[in-house]
């Protein structure tokens, strides 16, 4: 289970701020996970501590120089030859809930945040083991993506959510989006909580939530249902609440 996260970044304050925020901050404060930052500027020579330079072949922007970045990555990795180094990049594997569970099961997470036009490819070829993306868009740097990944992973660690079933009911955990949720008051601006949630029949409530999750996924993310499919129990639950809606009408 994950116990340590190292982030190589030119803007460590971006990441250190997680220590003060929500579930991630509490997990760090109580020792569930350690968070460390490594700044390539600390390994750059000269007064100006330059970590970027013009790209060979011309073109706009700057590229992160290999040596300062390599030394920062090697310092983060230390003697742990088993730890994988991941880089946040639009070219990487798409982060999804299955990947988040996979990452939470590792002992260490080492993340490299790129900046400028990119990282010298020789560093990617020799020191980076995997690449991760949080979506098909471009950010000004890898720090926001690293923060997203850290938050998603840390909340899966034992004891962080405070209720073991919370993570199991999240969207994507069973290949479905989450069901709707309601709280007090029972009636708000003319809108009422669905009666089934007030019935006290916990088995029926669970079936209703299942049906709602399936229907929401069908409407909003049909591609997920195409991959997952529905089993006989799913079809039975859908039919039960479809019939109930027709009777009510």
TrEMBL record:
UniProt EC number: 2.1.1.228
EC class: transferase
Annotated Pfam families: tRNA_m1G_MT (PF01746)
Alphabetized CDD domains for the sequence: TrmD-like
Domain tRNA methyltransferase TRMD/TRM10-type: 4-225
Family of this protein: Belongs to the RNA methyltransferase TrmD family.
Subunit structure: Homodimer.
Name of this protein: tRNA (guanine-N(1)-)-methyltransferase
């Amino acid at each position: 289970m994950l116990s340590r996260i190292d982030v190589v970044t030119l803007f460590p304050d971006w990441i250190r701020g997680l220590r003060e925020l929500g579930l991630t901050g509490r997990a760090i404060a109580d020792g569930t996970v350690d968070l460390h930052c490594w700044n390539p500027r600390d390994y750059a020579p000269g007064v100006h501590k330059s970590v970027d330079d013009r790209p060979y072949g011309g073109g706009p922007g700057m590229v992160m120089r290999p040596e300062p970045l390599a030394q920062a990555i090697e310092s983060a990795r230390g003697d742990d030859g088993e730890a994988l180094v991941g880089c946040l990049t639009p070219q990487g594997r798409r982060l999804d809930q299955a990947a988040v569970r996979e990452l939470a099961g590792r002992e260490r997470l080492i993340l490299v945040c790129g900046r400028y036009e990119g990282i010298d490819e020789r560093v990617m070829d020799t020191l980076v083991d995997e690449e991760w993306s949080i979506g098909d868009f471009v950010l000004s740097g890898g720090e926001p993506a690293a923060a997203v990944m850290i938050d998603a992973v840390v909340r899966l660690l034992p004891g962080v959510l405070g209720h073991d079933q919370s993570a199991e009911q999240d969207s994507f955990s069973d290949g479905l989006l989450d069901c709707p949720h309601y709280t007090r008051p029972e009636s708000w601006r003319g809108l009422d909580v669905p009666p089934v949630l007030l019935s006290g029949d916990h088995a029926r409530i669970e079936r209703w939530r299942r049906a709602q999750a399936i229907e929401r996924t069908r409407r909003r993310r049909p591609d997920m249902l195409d991959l997952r499919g529905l089993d006989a129990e799913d079809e039975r639950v859908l039919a039960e609440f479809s019939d109930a809606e027709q009777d009510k009408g």
